[in-house]
Amino acid sequence: MAPLASSTRELFTEAVRAVLETWPVLQIAVDNGFGGAEWMVDALRLYFIDNDELQQDEVEDLISDLMNNEFDTVADDGSLPQVEQQVCEMLQQCQQDRLKEVREQIKQLIQKKMDQNLSSKLP
Question: Which residue stretches, if any, does this entry annotate as coiled coil (predicted)?
Fold first, then answer.
């Protein structure tokens, strides 16, 4: 991974958090007490920082392993590749200094989470 400035690293961390917080499989695992999502955000962020030129299948394997080993959860709903793709895409945008796009995607994901929370509370 090309080195990111500390402010860009913080934005990437926010992006990872936003993606994971809107991933239903992870939220179900967290809601059932299988672990904490913040730990997974940090683990993914460090993985990207510590490894250059990651392949998408490596990232998908890592996320799958984290879900299985730390949350005792298998994401068999087909959402894992989508999560991996979102995280990799936002990393690439951060590397290319396309920070406005990343901020907009984070904003959309936060709105999606708020909408999910609202709809889950309706009768």
Answer: 49-119
Q: What is the pTM of this model?
A: 0.87
CA dist 12 → 3, 29, 51, 64 (Å): 12, 23, 15, 20
Residue type at 28?
I
- Residue 1 inside a domain? The answer is no
Which tokens is 44 given? 């993914």
**Is the distance from CB of 27 to CB of 19 less than 8 angstroms?**
no
State the alpha helices, DSSP H only, in the chain.
6-21, 24-31, 37-50, 56-71, 80-95, 99-121
For tokens 């250059």, name the residue: 52
d(CA 34, CA 106): 25
Domain that holds residue 115: 6-121
